[in-house]
Here is the input.
Amino acid sequence: MSTPPVVTRFAPSPTGHLHIGGARSALFCWAFAKRHAGKFMLRIEDTDAARSSVESARGIIEDLEWLGIHNDLGPYLAPDGSIAQRDWPDGRVGTFFQAQRVPIYDRELERLVRLGRAYPAFDTPEETEAQRAAAAAAKQTYRYPRPAEIEFGVFNPALEARWARAKAGERHVVRFAAPREEIVVHDRVLGDVRIAAGELDDFVIRKADGFPTYHFAVVVDDESMGVTHVLRAQEHLANTPRHVALQRALGYPTPVYGHMPIICNMDGSKMSKRDKAKVARQFLSDTIKKGATTASAASADTGVAPADLAAFLAKENDSNEIAAKIASRFGLTLPEIEVADFRASGYLPAAICNYLALLGWNPGLKTPDGKDLEKFDMAFLAQHFSLERIGKQNSKFDRAKLLSFNADAIAAMPDADFRAAWASWLGDKAIHGDAGVATLRPVLDIVRDARRGAWLVTAIKARAKTLRGAYDSCKNWLVRPDDSKSFAPAAVEKHLKANNGQGAALLRAFATRLAACDPFDPPTIHALIDAFVKEHALPNPGPIAQAVRVAVAGEPVTPGLGETLAVLGKSSVLARITRCLEALAS
RNA sequence: GGCCCCGUCGUCUAGCCCGGUCUAGGACACUACCCUUUCACGGUAGGGACAUGGGUUCGAAUCCCAUCGGGGUCACCA
Here is the structure.
């Protein structure tokens, strides 16, 4: 007998950008499918009509593509920018957007009703809410009380009457008649998880707006789309018994489950999209408390309506937009939570995937020199991923380690690849707008320039930890006006004025040599420096190198001088040195 | 609070299933020194963990129990 092909799925709800935790779920599902020569599916869970949007779905699809997590089934971005999809050869799915699958859910739901396993309920939200509150006040666990007239597993006259009322259009929800039996989930990561009989209550499977709830849609779709393995975060573990109960009632097989640990902040709380709002809110209320601004001034500064800002401060919403506006107005850095955040910060997809793979999973292999194997690519993951090696405990997201992985990934890149990645990052930034937009364009132009770009890349790549870092480390001296008179005072003191102006004197002498330097390229400039050092019997190149740095960049920190000066070009370098000497004299 | 999951350096983890090879290994971070034209890289060294208490055993990080601690979840969100 042949084992059925493995089909995993990632099923986000399109209510925002792809969360980093979601990215890891997708990565593991992808890797597992690849490892078993199966298929990885993307499904869009947009049954929350109010919060879902196609733009979000598109964004999530883009983020997955960018990460290099490609799906075999489900929606993808066509070359013309539209959302296309790949179905099974027999076209059994039709659409992977749940909101468009309502007839399928309705059909299965009616089947459940006629089986006596689901029933319409006509309570208003207020009524159930009041009951819940009363139970909470009495310190009791609230479970929806099944009406006495409902007989488990029997489509009796009372149920038939309810069904008729529902069909006639009376406002209602449909609830599942949960079994009163122990449910055991055989989890491939956690082992058997037992839920005692009576723990499940009659939860809602179809909302008053006619859309299925998550539980129902998931169960129906996993079956109808051919999903064999469900790998998701542990936050879903508590839902699994409901899903198993539903599958049994519907006569479906139960897929293999594996619940992976949750990704947390360094403080141990679950990493959440709200964290950005939290940071911004905290910052703004502190600033107001200190008297540095007022709510109305902040509202005017950020362009957020006073009422919206007040609601935000009162924790009535966690709008990422408002958080972003506050951050940009006050120069506050928000934590990266979503894939798009990390992308904007200049992280490489390969480094993100590598780091993510290590969060809750480990290959358990050693490198030839006996160290733990930690650096690997997607192909390795696709070959070695296994459920057995997924850990059970939650892990904290350590940005310092991600940063280190990213720096290593950049260092390992061929210059040409780095240059392309950097140019594309700069281009994205220039298009989407950024605080440093004024310097973005010129830097991008230099990166694209054949000779200067190549020199810049050699100068920058080795010391860059992120693409943003690469940009930050050169934008100031690169776009510095040749007639700028701003020089870091302490550096001027130390490298130009000290020892009776030794630095300035050396600089003056060196400028003459530079003027005669030809070709003006890194090796020639390096040779020039070496010769200059020997000639002046300097103990090391420090005195002249630092003097040049201050004169040319205005500060004592730049990449290697050969590349730095070459990129700038002879006339610019000479003009800056002249300007610096003038400034010194006055 | 009910239910569920988890508990090895600050963090991610190897080791645990199949007790001895563990005076517990690696990575990131940190500290010191070296290298060095600044920054970064690189090199060397260092501090740093089996949550606690009981068992079982000749022997426990590894098996069992309890306690404590952390997390998740309790919607007509997913």
User: Anything to note?
Assistant: The radius of gyration of chain A is 31 Å. Residues 274-331 of chain A form one domain.
